[in-house]
Write a structure and sequence with these properties.
The protein has 159 residues and is of the alpha+beta class. It is built from 3 helices and 7 strands. Strands 1-2-7-6-5-4-3 form a 7-stranded antiparallel sheet, with helices on one face. The termini are close together. 25% of the residues are buried. This is DUF2867 domain-containing protein.
Amino acid sequence: MHTYAIANPVTLPHPALPDADWADSFSITTSDTGITPEIATQKIMQSRPGWVARLMQIRDLAMRPFGLKPGVNDPENPNIIGIFPVIARADNSITLGLNDKHLDFRLVIEIDHVAGGRTAIRAITAVKRHNILGQAYLATITPFHRKIVPAMLNAAYGR
């Protein structure tokens, strides 16, 4: 059986960022058991394909003149996973995110133990754009984002 990430509908407002004006969601189901939101998030962040890492480097360089914060990886800090600060933890989810002058964003990783001993993992991204630069940035990265998130889910849990 093959398992691949798929897009899912997401409705706004979302509790992770109630004033978000943009959101998307992708999910994947795995036979892995014992998954917690923390474990899933760490595995997803560590499963970033090389082409994604290169795109993030280009993004950081291109956006530096505009004051967009680059991600900082600090594996020793339990309040950072990958390059994103942890905003909230719950039994079935973990929320990462940043607030910036251009936009605020949240990445919510939810887990749901489903029938047949399987686990559904859902990655929800919610964004609140503050100004024209935030709008332009999101418009520019959205096509990449919609490839990156499923690629990371597939790298972590695809079969």
